[in-house]
Amino acid sequence: MDGFGSAPALYWRGRTHGYDAFLDLIAQWEARLADLGIGPGSVCAFCGDYSPNVIALVFALMKARAVLVPLTPAIEPEIPRFLDISGAEHLLRFDENDSWNHGRLTPSARPALFSRLDESGTPGLVVFTSGSTGIPKGILHDCDRVMRKFVQPRAGWSTVLFLLMDHFGGFNTLLGTFAYGGVGVCPESRSPQAVCAAIAAARATLLPTTPTFLNLLSASRAYVGHDLSSLKLITYGTEMMAEATLQAVRVMFPQAELKQTYGLSESGVLRSKSDANDSLWVKIGGPGFETKVVDDILWVRSEANMLGYLNVESPFDAEGWYCTGDHVEVKGEYLRFLGRKSEIISVGGQKVFPSEVESVLLEAENVVEAAVYAIPHPLLGKAVAARITLNTPEDPDALFRRLRDHCKARLQKYKVPMRVQIVEADAQLSQRFKKTRPLDGESS
């Protein structure tokens, strides 16, 4: 970063900060951390969104060889539990104006896994994920191992920092942006209007995002009122992409390359290459990563594997392989993701992947978003149901008949939803702009 001089590094609130000014801000945070008693091995949680101070703090903490615990206001109710799991000793909070305050914490215990970082003298990163039980798991990474993939020089991008930093994909994007001399573009919020405004104002070239947000962007038509011609690459991941959404994005951004990404909080973000702009087939891997498919399930082994979970047993086998739970089809070097093993609906013993039904529903007129899930059935065990978000209001009974006919013409009978519920768009979104599906059997 020191070699990029005064080149633009960060766009925030209508102002561009150069790398020289950004490095000065990092140095200021190094001095502050020393005054606060935050040094090697200190477990420091910080809560905020992307801003000059927050991003500078990230690099200052890594230079101080501390353990980083990034948090965001979106997960405020979970923060006390996350602080406890991580054994956080410090908490820095940032407001919307980039002002901050510091508090000392008294953890109940220091996680034993931190001894690995103490031995290596390297900075750590803790991110959280939820398992099938809903119990959050604290994932510990060695930051040096995470950063190895960024050593080889590459072209820098003016990147919209859309993916939240408290998730591995967002942290990976943050590191990649500055490692290659790119510009981190901070949107005012993650609404379609705000993201489009940030792209236009900063002349952003890269938008890493989710299929759900792209679907929302298409429905909102916020892109119509902004000059988004600077956008050259859109990467999408973290969930399944519907064919209908992919085609809509091609129409919205004909000048942009579309690239599917794949990553895991446990094993890092793999290099990827989409077969074509209009294809959901993707090749994944790259230096430091290995993949294999066993019984149609993807397994990954990585040099950047996490050190382990802080509060549950390690998921890796004896040879370091991790079962992702993702069902895939294989075509030579390329894979097509079908859905998570945990999401499969068994209808009378026959498998239904929710993403397949959702893709068909999104092709129907007036449907903005669709989330498919299982409901109990007295004879089949399970049946398919769907929550639908509409562009304009429609009679529920007429909608149900229309969607049933639409699906019957495109799907086998057991895949056709037996129940349809109309919901608002917010009910379909998680805090990370991913699709949320009701729990198995949840009443609608």
From TrEMBL:
InterPro entries xrefs: AMP-bd_C (IPR025110), AMP-bd_C_sf (IPR045851), AMP-binding_CS (IPR020845), AMP-dep_synth/lig_dom (IPR000873), ANL_N_sf (IPR042099), ATP-dep_AMP-bd_enzyme (IPR050237)
Gene3D superfamilies in the record: 3.30.300.30, N-terminal domain of ligase-like (3.40.50.12780)
Segments forming domain AMP-binding enzyme C-terminal: 356-425
Segments forming domain AMP-dependent synthetase/ligase: 4-310
GO molecular function: acid-thiol ligase activity
Protein name per UniProt: AMP-dependent synthetase
